[in-house]
Structures are given as structure tokens and as C-alpha cells.
Design a protein that fits this description.
The protein is mainly alpha-helical and about 525 residues long. About 70% of the residues lie in helices and about 5% in strands. The chain is globular, with a radius of gyration of 27 Å.
């Protein structure tokens, strides 16, 4: 067997082991069969329509956001039948692919140890696990963007043939096109990538500009990127403006203006590692200069862009997390031989000076291993992210644990009321439609903002949500109009949305409690219902 064959076999074995570990980390605890979660129901409902007739309908409207992902969910329904488990298969699969792509890329550019450290951190990162366990486009988006970056790095950093580089560039464009289709966060992601490419050009200028052919290639690449960015900006300008307006609304201002949001997040999740980032950058760049500079430029640019001008939620920066894990992998791999020598010296001194026994290789190795495990263990138990992951494995995730409402528990009581009510008002139209097959009006300030946008919000109550074709309200005055128009009706909402200023406000709750009759529901349902 040749060296190349041995290397390929080793990579295949390691990749298989990693896939098993990543799947295990995502299927322990709450697994894939938990209760419905938030926005995933948009894809589930739209996928039901796609599985039936190839459309993307929800009630009387159309939900075609990230339609490629929705079609994947619909394909799962056709293969395995309609269920939440089937709906979550694509997110799980691409959550695994995301980690594997990082592992293979880092292994090829920084070695086996750095790759295992980076992939290991990504494997047990709590939000990466959570994104893999509900039917939303984020893992596909992250995997597509990362694969596109891998292809770009192959073009600029490796001496492949022109045909191979052209194929890599084409695959990168396809990946970025898919990423744009899935989520607008691709804009800051590509801006960060452009900075990383620029840094690579600057730091490698003495090679890049030595040959005329290379100069022409770089110039052509830069102009192509500018043209592509301009074309995308023109095509999606209205969408970008609408998104910026939406994220500047008061409903998002509590986090949207906090430029230290992600700094606080990293300090909470990785308190033992995040403060050492400058040292990590030095070690990573000294270990693999070109690869380290590229990953550092990409992550830091993304972090700054998201902190200053981006939406402030964990899932909106997770496209950059693989590059941070790659940096940590390189830094710890650079430290490993020095730490090994230090721990060996400490173990040998301990056995000879303190225990006063002859040098024993087995005992020294055991002591060295104990010290290393203690160091890693302390780092883990000092991190909020580790305990979040443990809680996920225990079935106590914030997203997938005991906080979720169980609409099925309330169905025996509510379904007859829904069927005969003249109108059904809800704070959660997706779950009402999924479980009861009906809703008529949505009461939610957040949904009203989604529908009407920043400029019109508050001036056009009862406007139809294009996703459902049904009216949306957000004020008590509108709720009172419904009571006057309909002699009877039903309100259904989740306890987590009750007396929530962005869903059912205190004023709305007070109105319902004074004008309607509370419906007694099973406590475990975590729902609130009123009839009038």
C-alpha cells in the first residue's frame, strides 16, 4: 500500500469516526424528536404544501424564503411521511457536514491535531448542536459558506492546475449563491471573506506580483468579485434595505444597538479561551502563517461587522465560528509539544524529588496524562458553553427542553372550540395551523413588523401577512374591533408569549381577562386560551 493510499485510508477512518461522534453529540438527550420550535414551523407547513403539489403555501399565503431548503424538507416528507423528525433530517445532515468540512480543511492545511481540536470544539458547541436539531436553514447555510471559503482558499493558496482552480472557483460561486438564497447574513460573511482575501494578497505580495500571469489572475479575480458584489447589491437592494429597517426597529433595539453583544456572548460561553484570543492569534499564525492569517482576518472581520452593524443573535454569527475553532486548533497544536515537554519534566521531577522513586516511564506518563486531563477538564467546566451542551444532552435545552409548549396536549380541549369558533386569534399562527389546521387573525407586534416593515408599522392594522394571507394586528384597539365584529371567538397563545410586549402585551392580556372566559387546559400544555 502506497503512502498516498495510507493517507487516504487514515483520512477516511478519521472522518468516519468524526461523523459518529458528531451524530452522537446531536442525538443524545433531546435528540431530533422534540416539540416544535419557533420558526421551523414555517418550513414544515410550506414543505407539507410542496410535498402535496409542489407549491410553498401556508394557509392563503406563500412562504418561499429559503425555498431550496423547504423543498428538501418536503422531499423528506415524501420519503418518510410527514413528521417533525423527518423535517429535521436535512438540518441534522448538514450540521454533520459542516463539522466534517471544517475537519478535512484544517487537517489539510494545519495537520491532524489542529483538525481534531477544531472539529472537537465545533462538535460540542451548544448552538451548533441546537441549529442541527430543528428544521431551519442555518446549518445548510453555514456548510455552504464554509465550503465556498474552502474553495476560495484552494484557488488563492494552492498550486493546482488552472482547470482545477476554475472548478474550485465555480463551486465557490455555487456555494455562495446558495448561501445568498438562504440568508442575508451572507453579505457580511462575504465582506469578511473579501478582507481575508485582501490580507492574503497583502501578506503574500512578494510572490503574487512576481509573475505577470499572477498579476493578471489577481486583477481579474478582484474585478470579478467587485462585479459580482455589485450585481448582487442591485438585485437584492430592496430586500437589504427592508432588512436594515426591520433590525433598527424598537423591537430589536435592546440588542441591535449593543455593539458588545457578541463580546459578552463569547465571554459567557468561552471564558477560559476568549480572553486569550490575542495570544491564540499569535500562536496560530506562528504555527501556520498563511492559513492562520486567513482564518484570523475572516473571523475578526466577521466579528466586527456583526458587532457594529449586524443583527444580535447567536445564530447570526455562527457562520464565522468554524474559523475561530480553526484558530484555537492551530494555537493548541502549536502549544502541544511545548506543553508535552513541560508536563514530562514536571512528572519526572515529581516522581524523583517528591516521591523519591527511580524514574518510571509508566508512572511519569500517568502523571502527565492526569495533568493534561485536569487542564482540559478545568477549561471545560469553566465554560458556559460546556454546561449548555450538557443541558442539551440532559434534555434541558432552552430551545428544546421543558420550556416548549405542547399543543398536542391541549388538542382534545381546543380542537372542538377551534372547529366551531367564528374566528380564531393566536399569537403563534404557525403552530396553530400545524396542530389545529386553522387560525384567522394573528396578534403579534413582531409579526406586524415583519409584515408592515419599519415605516408602516402601527398605521395599517389588519394588513395581510403575505406568508399566510391572513390579517395581523398588534393593538388592543384592533382586538376590541374583533370582539365587536364577531359575536364569539377563541384566542390561543403560548405562556411564553403571554404578557410579552412583542406578542400579547399586558394591555392585550388585561383586555382578554376582562372580556373573555379562560379555557382550562392541561398544565403541561403551557398554553393560554380564552373564548368569548
Amino acid at each position: 500500500m502506497t503512502t498516498t493510499q495510507l493517507a487516504d485510508r487514515s483520512l477516511a477512518i478519521e472522518t468516519g469516526l468524526l461523523i459518529a461522534l458528531v451524530c452522537a453529540a446531536r442525538l443524545i438527550g433531546v435528540g431530533i424528536a422534540h416539540l416544535p420550535v419557533g420558526d421551523e414551523m414555517f418550513h414544515v407547513l410550506s414543505a407539507q404544501s410542496w410535498a402535496q403539489d409542489g407549491t410553498f403555501r401556508i394557509a392563503d399565503g406563500v412562504y418561499d424564503r429559503a425555498s431550496f431548503f423547504t423543498a428538501m424538507v418536503g422531499a423528506m416528507f415524501r420519503l418518510f411521511g410527514e413528521s417533525l423528525v423527518a423535517a429535521r433530517i436535512p438540518a441534522l445532515v448538514f450540521g454533520v457536514v459542516w463539522v466534517v468540512v471544517l475537519f478535512v480543511w484544517v487537517r489539510a492545511n494545519a495537520g491532524r491535531l489542529a483538525a481534531w481540536i477544531a472539529a472537537g470544539l465545533f462538535c460540542i458547541a451548544p448552538h451548533a448542536i441546537e441549529l442541527s436539531l430543528y428544521s431551519r436553514m442555518y446549518t445548510l447555510h453555514g456548510a455552504a459558506f464554509l465550503l465556498g471559503v474552502v474553495m476560495v482558499y484552494a484557488v488563492i493558496a494552492h498550486s493546482y492546475t488552472l482547470a482545477t482552480k476554475a472548478a474550485c472557483a465555480a463551486l465557490a460561486l455555487a456555494c455562495f449563491g446558495l448561501a445568498f438564497h438562504l440568508h442575508l447574513v451572507t453579505y457580511p460573511a462575504l465582506a469578511a471573506l473579501a478582507v481575508a482575501i485582501g490580507m492574503d494578497i497583502v501578506t503574500r505580495h512578494h510572490r503574487v506580483w512576481t509573475a505577470r500571469q499572477n498579476r493578471l489572475w489577481v486583477i481579474a479575480l478582484v474585478f470579478a468579485m467587485i462585479a459580482a458584489a455589485a450585481a448582487l447589491a442591485v438585485i437584492a437592494w430592496d430586500t437589504v434595505v427592508a432588512s436594515v429597517e426591520r433590525f433598527l426597529l424598537p423591537a430589536y433595539a435592546n440588542r441591535g444597538t449593543d455593539i458588545r453583544y457578541y463580546q459578552k456572548m463569547f465571554m459567557t460561553d468561552y471564558p477560559a479561551l476568549w480572553p486569550l484570543l490575542p495570544l491564540v492569534l499569535i500562536l496560530a499564525i506562528s504555527y501556520r502563517p498563511r492559513f492562520g492569517v486567513f482564518c484570523a482576518a475572516l473571523f475578526i472581520s466577521a466579528f466586527l461587522l456583526q458587532s457594529i452593524a449586524g443583527r444580535k443573535e447567536e445564530r447570526y454569527i455562527y457562520y464565522s465560528m468554524p474559523f475561530l475553532f480553526a484558530l484555537w486548533g492551530m494555537a493548541l497544536a502549536a502549544l502541544a509539544p511545548h506543553l508535552d515537554r513541560l508536563l514530562s519534566d514536571i512528572a519526572n521531577r515529581f516522581t524523583s524529588d517528591y516521591l523519591q522513586v527511580k524514574q518510571n516511564q509508566g508512572l511519569s506518563t500517568a502523571l502527565k496524562t492526569t495533568c493534561a486531563v485536569a487542564i482540559v477538564g478545568f477549561i471545560l467546566v469553566s465554560s458556559g458553553s460546556f454546561f449548555r451542551t450538557v443541558n442539551i444532552w440532559r434534555g434541558q435545552s432552552y430551545y428544546f427542553g421543558t420550556q416548549l409548549s405542547d399543543w398536542e396536549k391541549a388538542k382534545p380541549v381546543l380542537q372542538p372550540l377551534v372547529d366551531r369558533a367564528p374566528t380564531v386569534v393566536t399569537t403563534n399562527f404557525a403552530k396553530s395551523q400545524y396542530h389545529f389546521g386553522r387560525f384567522d387573525i394573528v396578534f403579534s407586534k413582531v409579526v406586524a413588523v415583519d409584515v408592515l416593515g419599519a415605516q408602516a408599522h402601527g398605521s395599517a392594522e389588519f394588513a395581510a401577512d403575505p406568508r399566510t394571507g391572513r390579517p395581523v394586528i398588534s393593538t388592543v384597539a384592533s382586538l376590541q374591533q374583533i370582539f365587536e365584529q364577531y359575536p364569539g371567538g377563541l384566542f390561543v397563545g403560548e405562556k411564553s408569549e403571554w404578557r410579552n410586549r412583542f406578542r400579547m402585551s399586558d394591555e392585550g392580556a388585561d383586555f382578554l381577562e376582562s372580556r373573555a372566559v379562560r379555557v382550562e387546559l392541561p398544565p403541561g400544555s403551557r398554553l393560554v386560551a380564552f373564548s368569548w
